[in-house]
Amino acid sequence: MNGKTFRESTVKLLRRVISPWMEVGVVSRDEFDLLFTYIGSQAKTGKPPSEVAPRLIRGPEAAELLSVSYAEFRKLAAEGKFPFKRRVFGKNVRYYYPDIVEFMRTGGIEEGGDK
Question: What residues pair up with 96 in beta bridges, in sequence order?
Fold first, then answer.
């Protein structure tokens, strides 16, 4: 353990300790759920849970987020410039919104080539 994450055994212990407080109203159910969503994610992945709601968006929405035209977005996607997931439903393609946000946070495509 590197000191920045929780062990799963620690999460279980904390859940047992705090559950009675929730039952008597010292800790609200919402606080309890939020706390264990956060530390549970820390224990499993070593990272806090994503602040971005997981959802699928259409290509034009993704292009707007990335500040490129939809035609340019399709061209870049066909060239494999984007690392984010996509789902195909018949002829419709959807992109995973948290992946696009993470792509933007990490700098996107560098000038002159791949990221």
Answer: 56
Q: Are residues 85 and 60 in the same domain?
A: yes
Mean pLDDT of 89-112: 79
User: What residue numbers bound the domain in which 63 lies?
Assistant: 56-105
Give CA–CA dist 101/115, Å, rounded: 15
Task: Tell me if the pTM is above 0.70.
Answer: no
Chain-centre distance for alpha carbon 77: 21
Residue 1 domain-assigned (yes or no): no
Inter-axis angle of helices 29-45 and 8-23, nearest 10: 180
pLDDT tens digits, one per residue of 12-71? 899 899 999 989 999 898 888 888 888 887 788 777 666 767 788 999 999 998 889 999
Backbone angles phi, psi at 112, to 5 degrees: 80, 15
What's the structural domain count of the chain? 2
DSSP3 helix / strand / coil % (the chain, rounded to 5): 50, 10, 40
